[in-house]
Amino acid sequence: MSQKGLEGVVAAQTSISDIDVENSRLLYAGYDVTDLVHHATFEEVFYLLHHRELPASPQLEQLTSQLTVERDLHEFTRQLMVTLASTTSPMSMLRTLVSSASAYDADGWVVSTDHAANYRKAIRLVARLPQMIAGHERLRGGKWPVEPNRKLGHAANLLYVLMGEVPSDEDARVMDQCLVMHADHTMNASTFAARVTAGTLSDIHSAMTSAIATLKGPLHGGANEQVFEMILKIGSVEAVPEDIKGRLARKEKIMGFGHRVYKREDPRATILRELARDLGTRKGDMKWFEISEKIFEVVNSEKGLFPNVDFYAAAVYHYLGIPKRLFTPIFAASRIAGWTAHVIEQLQNNRLIRPDSEYIGPAPRNYVKLGDR
Ligand SMILES: CC(C)(COP(=O)(O)OP(=O)(O)OC[C@H]1O[C@@H](n2cnc3c(N)ncnc32)[C@H](O)[C@@H]1OP(=O)(O)O)[C@@H](O)C(=O)NCCC(=O)NCCS
To answer: Between the CA of residue 247 and those of 16, 136, 187, 252, 254, what are the distances in Å?
Structure first.
């Protein structure tokens, strides 16, 4: 008997993250993500996901320095970026750039089970994704990519290479909090794709390419961009009820709502709602937050559904000045921390992932010659 969508199927054991469904909590190696969002940086979380312990100061200093030193893109990537930016979407470009980055990785073609090399590759990929994402946006806008700023932390540098100016401490901290909360989420579709690829003993760049390709879809990472479109189209708090009820009557899915695992509110949505409210107040523009709140009210009363991570992320990123087409790539810039940790975990205790299928086609039959068909 097949289990459609593999719901409830346990595909791997992991010590990286866990969801406490009963209490709507997400935990990274035992630490509540809500605590981490309030106190930790993305650099600390990268270390935690890879080592299952928070770093002490010397370890954090070493990692921060590695993540800073590894920011520069190879000339090959820079040239490819110019070509791809003019012809592909940001997610398609990111997928292709990450795939191509294996060509000039300093660890080259070492065996895929070399965990130390995989960790170094993970650091390089995490360090470089912001430059790839921002490069696409700037080239599309007729501007030359900005060189990374070594004085800034990972999140602040991401905003810097995107906007071309040093962000405020408050905006940089919100970006950091978004990166922390998106960094891992158990066996989601893109993490599963990464583990399936790694399970064949393919290399970590191939596994990241699978993951990015999987995150791209609107039922996964692509939902946040569609939430933005919906808010933009609705345009006012007053227009929310009619619009949402119309969508539901047409049996359309409301993007940013529902979840395979959470039956109540996604804890990350709770944090993002607060961030959206604070940002709206600070920027003197509550409209996006208020439209989002009204959508939640109507969807919840009509369908009993709760928002997921993608819903309030749209308002938060909008307030930070991030264009809609970069919402999913920025999700990838964070989730790559978790994906790479999962790949290394898969390879440390690997068995090929090869599920079964339930055949529902024609019964066995004899070949019919071309002229007799
Ligand atoms: C996340 C999601 C893919 C989970 O899917 P799933 O576990 O396979 O759940 P299903 O799609 O089978 O939905 C179960 C029921 O809830 C309804 N439902 C789920 N999410 C819904 C949504 N966002 N809007 C309207 N109805 C929804 C389905 O129509 C279905 O109703 P039915 O039983 O009457 O047909 C799904 O909720 C969804 O498509 N959400 C919108 C996309 C999104 O926000 N993705 C980001 C996820 S973090």
So the answer is: 38, 33, 30, 5, 7
